[in-house]
């Protein structure tokens, strides 16, 4: 881990969320004023204008949505925030995809693949919003396939190799709990498109967290070997927690408190209370500043190799 630099600068007032007075239940409707955007995001479109993963038939995810940056919202700050959250999702999705044919059971292989697809969908929407907000009008392929590792802004925990099943469950538990806390607050963002994207992601992340929590309890309160592996996984993840908390875009203290509270509840149920030391203060924001581990480059090389070999190809 690198020495702690300054905390990231993506919590500008222009994109600061305005959460409801009492948190809405996961999966509830978006805040008033974003309903039309949410519906547009959920619609299917018949044209074939978009291209993700070279010819899957997906369309522009923001097709038909008013993507003008609202007055008073800093477009550059909005784009930076969307890029960070999209990179988190894309890199985590790629790691989850690596469990295909390797998971302990077929059912878990399907579940992990579906979680990865949820995250991939979130990344698509966020990349599309980024391209509109920063004024470049770049498509999602440009962000996913044609950037180098130093240009990615994901938290480094997402890029670490999968390790064993216990490590992947602990990482999924931490990242889904934290991401849910972040995106729930962004359902009140001043930008209605970001608010709608966040609202769409909340029920997905609620399931991701539930899935990881159930497995954490099963493994932690299971056999002696599964308990040992969970303790080892928690020890591996712990050094990356300060960076995760430092990477919260806004309401960092509230996000940290919610994340810690949920993790403590799950770990207590799993007979793992105290096994995940929680930092008192946020640490460095390495990934948000483009400082990554050696593991990101090969992950991206595999993800990007076909696109870079045939940049103009379509199927």
From TrEMBL:
BP-aspect Gene Ontology terms: phenylacetate catabolic process
InterPro entries with a match to the protein in the record: Aromatic_CoA_ox/epox, Ferritin-like, Ferritin-like_SF, PaaA_PaaC, PaaC
Gene Ontology CC annotation, any one: cytosol
Superkingdom of the organism of origin: Bacteria
SUPFAM superfamilies named among the record's database cross-references: Ferritin-like (SSF47240)
Compositional bias of kind Low complexity: 24-34
Span list, region Disordered: 1-34
Pfam families to which the protein is assigned, alphabetical: PaaA_PaaC (PF05138)
Name assigned to this protein: Ring-1,2-phenylacetyl-CoA epoxidase subunit PaaC
Organism: Actinacidiphila guanduensis
């Amino acid at each position: 881990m690198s020495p702690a630099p300054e905390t990231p600068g993506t919590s500008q007032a222009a994109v600061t969320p305005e959460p409801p007075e009492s948190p809405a239940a996961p999966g509830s409707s978006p805040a008033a004023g974003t309903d039309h955007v949410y519906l547009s995001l959920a619609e299917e479109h018949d044209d074939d204008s978009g291209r993700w993963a070279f010819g899957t038939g997906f369309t522009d995810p923001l097709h038909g949505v008013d993507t003008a940056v609202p007055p008073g919202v800093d477009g550059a700050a909005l784009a930076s925030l969307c890029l960070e959250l999209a990179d988190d999702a894309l890199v985590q999705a790629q790691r989850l995809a690596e469990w295909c044919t390797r998971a302990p059971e077929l059912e878990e292989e399907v579940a992990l693949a579906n979680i990865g697809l949820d995250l991939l969908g979130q990344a698509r929407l966020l990349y599309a919003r980024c391209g509109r907000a920063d004024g470049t009008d770049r498509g999602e392929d440009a962000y996913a396939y044609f950037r180098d590792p130093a240009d990615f802004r994901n938290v480094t925990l997402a890029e670490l190799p999968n390790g064993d099943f216990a490590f992947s469950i602990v990482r999924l538990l931490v990242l889904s709990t934290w991401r849910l806390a972040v995106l729930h607050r962004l359902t009140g963002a001043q930008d209605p498109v970001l608010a709608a994207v966040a609202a769409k992601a909340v029920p997905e992340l609620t399931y991701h967290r539930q899935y990881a929590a159930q497995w954490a309890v099963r493994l932690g309160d299971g056999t002696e070997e599964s308990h040992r592996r969970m303790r080892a996984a928690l020890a591996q993840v712990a050094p990356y927690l300060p960076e995760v908390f430092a990477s919260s875009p806004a309401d960092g203290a509230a996000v940290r408190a919610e994340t810690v509270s949920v993790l403590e509840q799950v770990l207590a149920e799993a007979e793992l209370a105290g096994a995940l030391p929680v930092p008192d203060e946020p640490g460095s924001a390495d990934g948000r500043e483009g400082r990554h581990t050696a593991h990101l480059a090969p992950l991206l090389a595999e993800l990007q190799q076909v696109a870079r070999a045939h940049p103009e190809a379509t199927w």
